[in-house]
Design brief:
Layout (H helix, E strand, L loop, with lengths): L14 H14 L13 E7 L6 H20 L8 E7 L4 H13 L3 E5 L4 H14 L3 E2 L16 E2 L5 H14 L5 E6 L2 H16 L6 E5 L6 H9 L5 E5 L3 H13 L5 E3 L6 H7 L7 E4 L10 H13 L7 H20 L5 H9 L4 E2 L4 E2 L13 E5 L5 E2 L1
Parallel strand pairs: 1-2, 1-3, 3-4, 4-5, 6-7, 6-8, 8-9, 9-10
Antiparallel strand pairs: 10-13, 11-12, 13-14
C-alpha cells in the first residue's frame, strides 16, 4: 500500500532540540503505542524519495523491503500478525519528509518508522522521533550525525561512511598507492567522508596529495578535477553523490583517462553508473551489503526468491538487497518481542539481538557501537556496467 501525505512542514532541528529530546527519552520510550487490537496487521511507515534526484535509489530500497515483508507475510507473518508498510514519497525534500513523519506519528496505529531515506531528512526527523520514543528502524544514511548515542529507539544497521572510507584507504595503501587525492562534496556528507579519509590516511602516515571540494550543483566540478589532475595523483577518493559525482568523473577522465577512482556506496546506484557510461569502468566502490549476484550466500538466495516473487520490473541491486535485509532484521526483532507487542518491548528485544546471521550478513545491536552491521566489501564496475568483486 502506498500513499502520499501532505501536511504543514516542520522547522529544521537544532542541536539544542536533539539534546533536549535525548534527555526525555527514558520516559518517551515507554509511552502507549497503538490500538489495543493485537490480531490486526502491525503498521509501520516510511518516508522515502520515490521521485526526485534520488528517486531510483529510494524505489530500489523500498521495493526490496516490500519484497522482504511480502515473503514474511506469505508464511503467516510474525507471531500470527502481518506487517503492513505504508510508504509516502518525499522527493528527497526535507520539508516533505518532516510532514510525512508528522502525519505518521499522529496516527496512533503507526507502530514504528522504518527505513526513512537520506541524511538531511533523517537528521531533521531525529528530534521529534527521539522525543516521541517511536522505534526508528534502519534509516538510510551512513552519517555519524544520524547515530546519536543514548537514543534507545534509534536503530542503525548499515555501516557508516567513516567505515567505508577507512576500507577504501586501507585498500589503496595495501596495494602501494600513497599519492592519494580527495574530492569531496561541499556539504555535511562530503566533509564527514573527508574527515574520515584524512584520519585513515594519518594512521598510515600518508598525507593527501591534494584535496578539492565540489558544490552540490556541481558548478565547480571541472575546476576541482583540474586542480586534482594537475598534481598527478595515483588515485582519487570520492566523497561525492549524485550530480557532483557525474560531472567530476567526466571532467577528470577527460584530463587523466586512466586515473583510478574510489567511491562510497552512496554513488553506486544503477542510474549513476549508467549515466557515467565508459567513465565508470574500473571504478572501485565500497558496498555495505553483499553483491546481489553472490548466490554462495543464503541471504542473497533468499532475497532473489523474494524479489522474483514480488514480480517487480526493477533489477535486483545492492540497494534492494539492503531494503530486504532491513525488513528481515525488523521481523526478527518483532518475533523476539512476542505476541504482547509494545514499543518498549520491541526496543528491548532489538537491543537483545547479538550476532544474528541472515546467511552471510550478520547484525549485532550494541549500545556501545553506532550501527549493527560493519560489513564493507569492495566492488569494481565492469565494462558492462555491472558490479563485480
Amino acid at each position: 500500500m502506498q500513499r502520499t501525505y501532505v501536511s504543514p512542514a516542520s522547522a529544521n532541528p537544532s542541536r539544542r532540540r536533539i539534546l533536549g529530546a535525548l534527555a526525555t527519552l527514558p520516559l518517551a520510550a515507554h509511552m502507549p503505542v497503538q490500538a489495543a487490537d493485537d490480531t490486526g496487521p502491525i503498521k509501520i511507515a516510511q518516508s522515502s524519495a520515490l521521485t526526485g534526484p534520488l528517486g531510483e535509489l529510494g524505489q530500489a530500497m523500498t521495493q526490496g523491503a516490500k519484497a522482504g515483508f511480502a515473503a514474511i507475510n506469505a508464511k503467516g507473518g510474525v507471531n500470527g500478525r502481518l506487517i503492513e508498510l505504508t510508504v509516502a514519497d518525499d522527493g528527497y525534500d526535507v520539508k516533505r519528509a518532516l510532514a510525512n513523519v508528522g502525519t505518521f506519528m499522529e496516527d496512533r496505529n503507526t507502530f514504528a518508522l522504518f527505513n526513512c531515506f537520506g541524511t538531511p531528512a533523517v537528521e531533521a526527523m531525529l528530534p521529534q522521533v527521539i522525543e516521541s520514543g517511536i522505534p526508528f528502524f534502519a534509516p538510510f544514511t551512513g552519517a555519524l550525525s544520524a547515530r546519536p548515542r543514548n537514543a534507545r529507539n534509534v536503530f542503525n544497521i548499515r555501516a557508516s561512511y567513516a567505515e567505508e572510507a577507512e576500507q577504501l584507504v586501507q585498500q589503496l595503501v595495501t596495494i602501494g598507492i600513497r599519492r592519494i587525492a580527495i574530492a569531496y562534496q561541499n556539504n555535511a556528507f562530503g566533509k564527514e567522508v573527508f574527515t574520515a579519509a584524512q584520519q585513515a590516511l594519518a594512521r598510515y602516515k600518508v598525507a593527501p596529495a591534494v584535496t578539492a571540494t565540489v558544490d552540490n550543483n556541481a558548478s565547480d566540478a571541472v575546476a576541482a578535477a583540474t586542480r586534482i589532475a594537475s598534481v598527478e595523483p595515483e588515485a582519487v577518493l570520492l566523497g561525492l553523490a549524485g550530480k557532483p559525482t557525474l560531472e567530476f568523473a567526466h571532467a577528470l577522465r577527460a584530463q587523466r583517462k586512466g586515473l583510478p577512482m574510489y567511491a562510497l556506496s552512496i554513488m553506486g546506484a544503477a542510474a549513476t553508473v549508467k549515466a557515467m557510461g565508459a567513465d565508470a569502468i574500473g571504478m572501485t566502490v565500497s558496498q555495505i551489503v553483499p553483491l546481489p549476484s553472490n548466490f554462495s550466500m543464503s541471504v542473497v538466495r533468499d532475497f532473489s526468491a523474494a524479489w522474483k516473487a514480488s514480480k517487480t520490473p526493477l533489477e535486483p541491486s545492492h540497494l534492494a538487497l539492503e531494503g530486504y535485509i532491513n525488513a528481515r532484521v525488523f521481523a526478527e526483532a518483532l518475533r523476539r518481542t512476542g505476541k504482547n507487542l509494545t514499543r518498549s518491548g520491541f526496543i528491548d528485544s532489538t537491543w537483545s539481538i547479538k550476532q544474528f546471521d541472515l546467511g552471510g550478513f550478520a547484525v549485532s545491536f550494541n549500545e556501545a557501537t553506532l550501527n549493527a552491521s560493519h560489513f564493507v566489501e569492495l566492488t569494481m564496475v565492469a565494462r558492462d556496467g555491472r558490479f563485480i568483486r
